[in-house]
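note to self — DONT lose this again. spent like an hour looking for the file last time. sequence + predicted structure for the chain T wanted, 313 res
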Amino acid sequence: MTYRPLSTRHLAVATAASIALLVSGCAESAPSPSGDGALSGAEIVVGSKEFTESIILGKLTQLVLEAEGATTTDRTGITGSSTVREALLSGEIDVYWDYTGTGWVNYLGHTTEDVPDGLFDVVAAEDLDTNDVAWIAQAPFENSYAVAAAQEWVGESGVESLSDAAEYVAEHPDENSICAASEFIGRDDGLPGLEAAYGSPYDEIVELDFNLIFSQVGDSCTFGEVSTTDARIDSEELVVLEDDLGFFVEYRGAVTLLQSTLDEHPEIEDALTALSEKLTDDVMRSLNARVDIDGEEPEDVAAEWLESEGLVG
């Protein structure tokens, strides 16, 4: 197997020292002044992962909590799921958005097989019991992992599903390459599990920063890791291959925070539930597009959308 890193996104070692270094190094806004509202006097540190959607969700959360009177600190943009999760557990941040599939596989140690119905409820109950982490404000949108290929190549090859892809690359080893980010390459619900499920190891792995993958599919690699709410799938003329064996786990967005934080500030749940109810697949694709395609700043996009929805004054 050829392993070819081009623009590696390094995951930090999840130790207290490295968490503190990464979190302190993230962009941090001046704390907002508290005002009137259900959360007046509360001081809340808002985190996120480093990709666009997670940062937007962090900015939305920060602005909604500020509208309820909280003083917030912005620590969005932490690299890697394991790192931002450890930041939550260690108290470096108070709240951030995560995904049910990530909770099921990466934090709770389950496999991608025999995933239960009602995954949010199962993850929420087990994570609360095991780690004192509360999952609240489940949103309607689902941002799942997927594998995509260029539209033109799909039309020529006839490959429409991941099973089709497995058969095709077995017969065409010169086209057996995939672009993926470091986290997907190492996660059980990512590339290793995908290869096992479909019985088709990719002989050439091109490791890229996630944001570079979309433009490189059909150029540096035949296939690429994508996420289903990313508007660049359309703008780069890609096709998501059908996961016909149902390998990828559900990745519904939800807010996570320590139960102790929720106990101290129960108003957080009502405020963020009002937000989450409006976050459909179409809404998230639209917000992501404004940042990734139109070049707007996540904070500006979040503020304008919240005002248009009447969620902030």
